[in-house]
Specification:
The complex is a heterodimer of chains A (187) and B (272). With 187 residues, chain A is mainly α. Chain A is 66% helix and 0% strand. Chain A is globular, with a radius of gyration of 18 Å. In chain B, strands 1-2-3-6-5-4 form a 6-stranded antiparallel β-sheet, with helices on both faces. Chain B is α+β, with helices and mostly antiparallel strands and 272 residues long. Chain B has helices spanning 3-11, 20-32, 34-55, 63-75, 90-94, 107-134, 143-152, 258-264, and strands at residues 188-189, 196-202, 206-214, 233-235, 238-245, 248-254. Classes of the chains: A mainly alpha (187), B alpha+beta (272).
Chain lengths: 187, 272
């Protein structure tokens, strides 16, 4: 077994569970998460030469996973970022409210991806803000702002009763709705 | 420091990552603000519950093995198949002895077959050449696929070769209804698609791109808008819009908000 194959096997051993969990929180589906994890490792294998620094392999794998996710835009349509702020009320969250993993996933599903990814990575406690920013190719300040907004939304949805309009999907964010908005007509 | 900044600073504080001075200021604010104390305590309590719940995703027991198996298949795409060779002597000894078969065609017959074959090949080649020249150009581009491909590539212009002309020798044209002055880089060729891709940054703040596809090449339908900015919508991280103008279909993607599109609308162009 050559160095590349050995390293790849090592990466699977170390990160497959973490990557699967990330994929699951992104997609909200076990089948999609398995598929995404597998695709991520296959892509890593195919594009191995693009990994210049092996110490950044974890970040690289997460970036691949996210890019593959964005490519297929798996998962249900979510809210727009402007709607997100509208739904966060000023009432303080009830920290004693009960919620479970499924409810958390439902709320994550509603978050726009650019908020969902950082907040998942924040709670995974695996990456620094700088690493999250590099993965998402935005400044660190943007990540902090998105985290703050996403966390506020999460708190609101998880601890309060369903806010009005939370499921309204008033803004299109998915590929399907974007295409519908463009009103593509047959030539 | 106001209440909101103090709460956000403390909420996102991580040792070694955040400014200690800012945190100290936020802590000082907290000492004098009972409301913030209460709020921060609530947030911390919730984080302590949300974090573990977020990480608590059961991983399928056989996933690791399946991944390793899958990667092994990827590495050894051509499996080594043992080839059994017959033992010398035994095969020859058991094979029946046959006499060489006499050729069934005469010399003349072979020549005739050869000339007919060559003639047919020449005719076929001539026919194909004519068809190649006069064939109608079939629409082959799916706008959705092109946009997804570009966005999936991470928009790295250097990896695409420079674009010059479409298959009908027409160069890509910039739209009249959109301010294109920010597209300072030359267009790039998206491999596998008849599409030119301009990639540039807008005011050094947003990454943006413009995809130009010949209208005749689009196979699955055209956007209804005929002017920029059309009806912008988000695709992934990009605010995106598509419209038809003249002989081209344009798709503009920008990592900014929809408001940026309004600013890019060319002066004098009526609202879409």
């Amino acid at each position: 077994m050559d160095h590349r194959a050995r390293t790849l096997v090592d990466l699977v051993e170390r990160y497959y569970a973490l990557l699967y969990r990330y994929a699951f929180r992104l997609t909200g589906s076990r089948a999609d998460a398995e598929d995404l994890t597998q695709q991520a490792f296959l892509t890593a294998q195919a594009k191995w030469d693009q990994l210049r620094d092996e110490t950044k392999a974890k970040s690289w794998l997460f970036t691949i996973t996210r890019n593959l996710y964005l490519k297929d835009l798996r998962g249900p349509p979510c809210l727009t970022s402007s709607t997100l702020d509208e739904l966060v009320s000023s009432s303080p969250p009830d920290s004693s409210a009960e919620f479970d993993g499924e409810q958390l996933q439902n709320v994550l599903n509603d978050l726009p991806e650019e908020f969902r990814s950082p907040v998942i990575m924040f709670y995974f406690e695996e990456f620094s803000y700088r690493e999250i920013a590099e993965q998402m190719e935005v400044p660190v300040g943007t990540i902090m702002s998105r985290l703050s907004r996403a966390k506020a939304y999460l708190r609101q949805r998880l601890t309060a009763s369903e806010p009005a309009g939370a499921r309204g999907r008033s803004g299109a964010y998915s590929r399907e709705t974007a295409w519908a908005a463009w009103n593509v007509r047959p030539e | 420091m106001n209440c909101l900044t103090a709460r956000q600073t403390l909420e996102l504080y991580r040792p070694g990552e955040s400014e200690t001075a800012e945190r100290d200021a936020a802590v000082r604010h907290l000492e004098d603000c009972a409301t913030c104390q209460d709020e921060v305590r609530r947030h911390e309590a919730l984080d302590l519950r949300i974090g573990p719940l977020c990480r608590d995703v059961p991983v399928p027991g056989d996933l690791r093995a399946r991944l390793l198996e899958c990667l092994a298949i990827g590495t050894d795409a051509v499996p080594e198949i043992p080839v059994e060779l017959p033992e010398t002597g035994t095969q020859l000894a058991s094979a029946p002895v046959t006499r060489p078969v006499a050729p069934t065609t005469t010399r003349w017959g072979r020549r005739r077959v050869l000339s007919i074959g060559l003639g047919s090949a020449a005719l076929l080649a001539a026919g194909l050449s004519v068809w190649f020249v006069v064939r109608p150009t079939r629409p082959s581009v799916n706008v959705e696929e092109v946009v997804q491909s570009v966005l999936a590539e991470g928009v790295l212009p250097a990896q695409f070769p420079e674009f010059t002309k479409f298959s009908d020798s027409v160069p890509p044209q910039l739209p009249a209804t959109m301010d294109s002055s920010w597209l300072v880089e030359p267009p790039r060729q998206l491999p596998g698609h008849e599409a030119a891709v301009y990639v540039s940054s807008l005011r050094k703040k947003f990454q943006g791109l413009l995809i130009v596809i010949p209208r005749r090449a689009v196979k699955d339908g055209l956007p209804s808008a005929t002017k920029f900015p059309g009806q912008p919508e988000y695709i992934g991280l990009y605010c995106t819009t598509a419209w038809v103008e003249g002989d081209f279909v344009y798709v503009c993607c920008l990592s900014g908000l929809k408001d940026e599109f309004q600013r890019l609308q060319r002066a004098g162009s009526p609202p879409a």
